[in-house]
Design goal:
The complex is a heterodimer. Chain A is built from 11 helices and 8 strands. By secondary structure, chain A is an alpha/beta fold. In chain A, strand 1, helix 3 and strand 2 form a beta-alpha-beta unit. The termini of chain B are far apart. The chains are: A alpha/beta, B alpha/beta.
Chain lengths: 299, 385
């Protein structure tokens, strides 16, 4: 045995600070090195810790895809649902047991592609959900196909000559549909992203945070953008922080500047508050609200 | 346990099948419905959305049937009894998350008031052509339960049964009305709450840390933990082990999926409900369900005048299929006659189980109406020859 190996054996092992929030028996995770999903998860776990929320009353729902695996690694009541249906699944969870803090953590293809209809309606009805969308500009898990978020002219495996379909501007979509909190950060904005998660945990209604984390394997390779780290650095350095920017003006172009910040933060009643108020007004004493712990039957 | 009186409208009523189904759901303890309007099922949720605010229930009109079924599976994981209501086109959209419900082993009820199909078909008129879809509609191998009421009274009674079965076996239960039964108005007697037996969610008594979401310990159905009770469990639509963790292997697939089949097939005798009449000594046995069972009785009466010995089986449970009973009878009778409002779906199962030991006569009807009893009579007469 060499001296070097001996020295390595003497390294003191400490538990990672967010390990208690993760299913450590499922680590290593499936994400590529330099993928931004992991840092988003770390920021979310830190925000949960610093917010002091009761973790027994926190549930997380994901759809399908790379970010769709997040629910599987969080040590909360965790649901890995079907492709695109994380938001309606989470809607059922929230209405079935209103006291829960319900987070939807999924990708751009899942939430704005196949799940786009659910996204706009949950925002419209101000469903009390924290929706974290990791935007990697592509369908990552299936091999880099074009997404509703792929920037114009960027290449994908199904747009090999470059994308000609205009992409979604997701903060604008969320804000125009009624989201009460809308922010965007890249996955390298660790401190600001964590703060945004913490703020959003404390708000009510449909809270939307877009995390920019271009796929460091496929998007980078197909567009010859260097290593994952090169890519992330590019976006971090190209970021312009504009709190309160008009969400209509925050489109993302190919290898262009990216506007980050908090765009919407409004104190509005969420769907269940609206429902309670309305029924109290119209039905008076006859109204029996769903109990916070849910409408389940027990002896 | 006994029903919660808040949901039980005890007394004698004059109700259509859709309203009776809604009343049955509320009596069964259903307190969450996610749905999307579709003829001829909408009256079920109209009834419930009017009564739910007075009993702590929530109806939410979702943006489509994909969302409705996803919300129902989500709500059920809080322990709140959950249901959705639809008809053919919506049923097709729900198949994705019916599969999720089967894979996650989620108790819930899916009401399908069947109309004529395929596609948009006959929105306001009767069909029974979704019965194979109820069994096979979602991809992959799974088993679930499907029931078929023949009257508004049964729409009430069997909705409660559907909820109870979904709790016992942790499966989505398909409640297959047809438009005729849904829109037919008859007397419905709703018992007092103390006379209605309800199966509550079977929650685990194990503390967090000792609980595994899909460990069965010799039972076929695992214990349940609700979201929000501190178990911090994981569940997924992926093939999973007893921890609810994804495992991508043929070995895990075998254990995971086989149990989904076994838990229904091994208990088929307990699940299956049949109504049998005049089977002993019969030469011909008519098998029917839903509104067609009532029409078939007229055909049987007409044929009996010709001196034919006719037995009758009314299938209350469509799935699991009463294989054993059909096999028993096949060796003793000449023929099965199977009228149904489709071009021959359940008759395929009858034929399979008859195994060539008895003839099988399909009496199809394309939908939009019920059979002419004379047609059923003629089929019986022909089969008896």
């Amino acid at each position: 045995m060499s001296v070097a190996t001996k020295e390595r054996m003497e390294v003191i092992e400490e538990e990672h600070p967010v390990a208690p929030f993760l299913r450590m028996d499922r680590i290593p995770h499936i994400w590529c090195s330099t993928c931004g999903i992991g840092t988003a998860v770390k920021c979310y776990a830190t925000a949960l810790e610093e917010s002091g929320v009761d973790l027994d009353k926190a549930a997380i729902v994901s759809g399908i895809g790379c970010t769709g695996r997040v629910a599987g690694y969080m040590k909360l009541d965790a649901f890995h649902s079907t492709h695109g249906r994380a938001i309606p699944f989470a809607t059922g969870l929230k209405l079935g047991r209103p006291e829960l803090l319900v987070t939807v953590f999924s990708g751009d293809g899942d939430l704005s592609g196949i799940g786009g209809n659910h996204f706009i309606h949950a925002a419209r009805r101000r469903m009390d959900l924290l929706v974290i969308l990791v935007n990697n500009f592509i369908y990552g898990m299936t091999g880099g196909q074009n997404a509703p978020t792929t920037p114009l002219t960027a290449k994908s495996s199904t747009m090999p000559f470059g994308n000609y379909e205009p992409p979604f501007n997701l903060p604008h979509l969320a804000a125009s549909c009624g989201a009460t909190y809308v922010a965007r950060w890249t996955s390298l904005h660790i401190r600001r992203l964590t703060k945004a998660f913490k703020e959003a945990i404390d708000r009510k209604g449909f809270r939307f945070i877009e995390v920019i984390a271009p796929c460091s394997t496929l998007y980078a390779r197909l567009n010859r953008l260097g290593t994952g780290f090169d890519l992330m650095q590019f976006y971090h350095h190209s970021t312009e922080i504009q709190h309160g920017a008009d969400p209509a003006e925050v489109d993302i172009g190919f290898q262009d500047k990216i506007i980050c910040g908090k765009f919407v933060d409004e104190d509005k009643p969420m769907m269940l508050d609206l429902m309670h108020e309305h029924y109290k007004k119209t039905l008076g004493d006859k109204y029996v609200p769903m109990p916070p712990e849910g409408g389940w039957l027990h002896e | 346990m006994k029903a919660d009186p808040a949901g039980v409208l005890a007394g004698a009523h004059y109700l259509d099948g859709d309203f009776a189904c809604g009343e049955g759901a509320m009596a069964a303890g259903c307190r969450f419905v996610g749905g999307y309007p579709i003829t001829p099922s909408t009256e079920v949720v109209e009834r419930m959305s009017r009564r739910f605010p007075m009993m702590g229930g929530i109806f939410i009109q979702m943006e489509d049937e994909l969302a409705s079924m996803a919300a129902v599976v989500g709500a059920s994981w809080t322990g709140t009894k959950s249901m959705t209501v639809t008809s053919g086109p919506g049923f097709s959209l729900m198949m994705e998350n019916i599969g999720l419900g089967a894979m996650m082993e989620t108790p819930c009820v899916v009401v399908n008031v069947q109309r004529g199909g395929p596609s948009t078909g006959l929105p306001t008129m009767v069909g029974q052509a979704d019965v194979m879809q109820a069994r096979w509609g979602s991809h992959g191998d799974y088993e679930l339960i499907a029931l078929s009421p023949q009257s508004p009274q049964e729409a009430f009674d069997l909705t409660i049964t559907a909820f109870n079965l979904s709790e016992i076996y942790r499966v989505p239960v398909m409640f297959m009305l047809d438009e005729c039964v849904g829109h037919m108005t008859e007397k419905v007697v709703i018992p007092k709450a103390e006379d209605i037996e309800i199966v509550p969610r079977r929650l685990t008594k194990k503390p967090p840390g000792e609980f595994f979401p899909y460990r069965v310990n010799g039972n076929s159905v695992p214990e349940f933990a609700r979201a929000g009770d501190g178990y911090r469990f994981h569940t997924t639509g992926l093939t999973h082990d007893e921890r609810g963790y994804p495992v991508m292997s043929a070995d895990c697939q075998e254990v995971c999926v086989k149990r989904l089949l076994d838990k229904i097939n091994d208990n088929a005798d307990d699940i299956i409900m049949l109504e049998e009449e005049d089977i002993d000594g019969a030469d011909v046995v008519v098998i029917a369900f839903g509104i067609t069972a009532r029409v078939a009785r007229m055909g049987i009466e007409l044929a009996a005048k010709k001196g034919i010995k006719i037995g009758f089986i009314r299938m209350i449970t469509l799935w699991p299929f009463p294989e054993k009973r059909i096999r028993e009878l096949a060796g003793k009778i000449k023929a099965f006659v199977v009228p149904e409002i489709n071009y021959g779906q359940m008759v395929l199962e009858v034929e399979r189980c008859a195994g060539g030991k008895a003839a099988t006569v399909s009496v199809p009807h394309g939908g939009g109406g019920v059979h002419d009893p004379d047609v059923i009579r003629d089929a019986i007469v022909g089969a008896a020859k």
